[in-house]
Amino acid sequence: MKNGLTEKEKLFCAYYADGGDARGCAARAGYSLSPQRSAARLLAREDIRAEISRLEKEKLSALSVEKGLCRLAFGSPADAIKLMLSEETLTAQEIEKLDLFNVSDIKRPKGGGLEIKFFDRLKALERLSALGANAENPQSSFIDALSQGAKLLGQEEDS
User: Fold this and answer.
1) What is the pTM of this model?
2) DSSP 7
3) Cβ(1)–Cβ(46) under 8 Å?
4) Number of helices (H) and strands (E), helices first, in the chain?
5) What are the pLDDT digits (tens) for 80-94?
């Protein structure tokens, strides 16, 4: 087993983790002679499968964070207001049905009533914006892919 993955192998793993077909991912990564056979050979390796799994988990984690921030930034406060304004005490089943994702704190002060604090929507929007700024620009990504393909093609011709 190898100590590390080559650049072509890393590219294949990244493309495959994004949900592409194995043959197409191998071709995009630079395995141009027989991409189908190369893809099968790569997917048979444990280190390749482990890297793909790691990348998929990383992608899911980032996607979960983004979805959560969207819910905080754009979620409706309607259920929290319903809880606050309800005249009678809600049952546990009714409370369970409420969407209180954007609520950070609920208190019942001694004087009566209900105090509800929400997560900061502006901070959630700022974090979403920061995530968007870190996302790759599709145009530069395409140019980078072309450049990298040309380099790999030059390396194959030299070999």
Assistant:
1) 0.50
2) H
3) yes
4) 8, 2
5) 998 888 888 888 888
8 A C-beta contact, residue 17 and residue 55:
yes
End-to-end distance of the chain based on CA atoms, in angstroms?
23
Per-residue model confidence as pLDDT tens digits over 49-78:
999 999 988 888 888 888 899 999 999 999
Nearest-angstrom CA–CA distance, 30 and 101 = 45
In this structure, what token pair is assigned to residue 117? Answer: 């604090």
Which distant-in-sequence residues (6+ apart) come within 8 Å of 5 by Cβ?
Answer: 13, 47, 48, 51
Tokens of 69: 């921030």
In this structure, what token pair is assigned to residue 154? Answer: 């030059």
The tens digit of pLDDT for each residue in 88-117 reads 888 888 888 888 999 999 998 888 888 999
Residue type, 18: D
Three-state SS at 43: helix
Are 106 and 54 in contact by the 8 Å Cβ rule? The answer is no
